[in-house]
Amino acid sequence: MVLASIALLILLINWRAKMHPFMALMVVSVLAALAAGIPASKVPETLAEGAGGVLGETGIVVFLGAMLGRLLADTGAVSRIADLVIAHSRPKTAPWLVTGVSFLLGVPMFFEVGMVVVLPVLYAVALRLEVASGRPRTWWVRTIVPAVAALSCLHGMLPPHPGPVVAVTGLHADMGLTILLGVICAVPTVIIAGPLYAFWIAPRVSLEPASELIRQFTGVTMDDAISASQTGGETTEGGSCAGQSSAGGSRTTAVKATRVAGSQTGRPVSTALAMICVLVPVFLMLAHTVTELAVPGSAIDHVAAFAGSPVIAMLIGVLVTCATLAVQAGMSGQQIRDSFGKGLSSIADVVLIIAGGGAFNAVLKASGIGDAITHLADSVSMNPLLLGWLIGLVLSFCTGSATVGIVSATGILAPMVNDASPAFVSLLVIAIGCGSISLNWVNHSGFWFIKEAFGMTIGQATKTHMTVQTIVSVVGFAAVWVLSLFLT
């Protein structure tokens, strides 16, 4: 029944009707429930409990994460971090700086939102280095690839992103431990899929976005920037266009083009404070894990458990950002409210898919299919980590949604981890997430977003976006496998 349900789900999403994943999940859930012999009168209750259950803690965390990400952008926190990167962009260090800032900014934002936020940074850095290097048409790829690697790694492997949060909730994993192990897996993964792969692939993909795109994100065209650097600015040996006019010391047009828009009010915020606010929820959740290991049952552990629970940690992160960055930026209460509204509206599709996945998982549990899959996996001696990675990969590739892959794999594999160690469960969350971001190709919205955002051909987007995410998937799973040898 599982195979038939998955086949139908794939057909509905990819068939001529192109059904929305949420609708497809609901239709398949109803049909699967009836086929499994669940009484018709119990089907609505099962679906509602499944959707509502997964949206309980998960939905709140996702919503708060969207609000935090949007507020960070609107207060100018993103622009301060971006300007820091741009000011230190040199040929040798730029890909690494872009990797770091993308990873930092991507912590509270899922892939598409994070990429929208970091787009001006990528264009600014690439434009500066292209001009300084004599327009070799390689710096665009060397700038884009690290950002895609960092954001996709976060999107699939680390809470508080929607997919991993769903897996953490469904598998009853420890959130802080999952973040800790996820970071350990993410570091080598992002390095290999980001700066190192970018260094290799850049000479093989000649890319320069259209003039309209460059002007949209930087304010000038490439030719304007080159002309400005030749007539009014100086190019430093390190590679940055840091020219200044003799009269007033003002930057040239080329350098002005690399500045990222600031807060809604134009009042600057502290760069250090911006970085702190981005990481507040992560620090709180990790602190809970540390105190649980170091001083279990103590008063400090109880406080850390409260503050480090995902819902409270994200809530504190939003409140801290409001009380510090929003006030420093001079945002009014209405502007903060409008910022929250825009952030929430951007994740409606994701939340609906999570709800549909919860309904589908509830049907699988009620039908007893999960137990059957557990016995099947035991009979073929397949490691649950590998099985989770494969299920996440196949469903994500076939349905065009990493979230669908994660929520479905979570429901299928949940019965297999009842007696597993906390470390193994957390590694399974990461393995499923790694599988879900592999082979992100033409049936994924993220592929088309990257293609259009940088004016790529399908071939260029395949060599960059799809290949990067597949490298992240494979290397990330390899890291999970190595950790499992020592921790489980």
Keywords:
488 residues; single chain; mainly alpha; 23 helices; globular
| Beta strands, count | 0
Form type: globular
Helix content: over 70%
Instruction: Give the SSE string.
Output: HHHHHHHHHHHHHHHHHHHHHHH
From the alpha carbons, calculate the radius of gyration and give it in angstroms: 23 Å
Model regions low in confidence, pLDDT < 50 over at least 5 residues? 233-257
What secondary-structure arrangement, pairings included, does this model have?
Layout: H1 2-14, H2 21-35, H3 43-74, H4 77-87, H5 94-106, H6 111-133, H7 139-157, H8 162-171, H9 175-201, H10 211-218, H11 222-231, H12 253-256, H13 271-294, H14 299-308, H15 310-328, H16 333-345, H17 348-367, H18 369-379, H19 384-399, H20 402-413, H21 422-436, H22 445-453, H23 458-487
Helix pairs in contact: 1-2, 2-17, 3-8, 3-15, 3-16, 3-17, 4-5, 4-6, 4-13, 5-6, 5-7, 6-7, 6-11, 7-9, 7-21, 7-23, 8-20, 8-21, 9-13, 9-21, 9-23, 13-14, 13-15, 17-20, 19-20, 19-21, 20-21, 21-23, 22-23
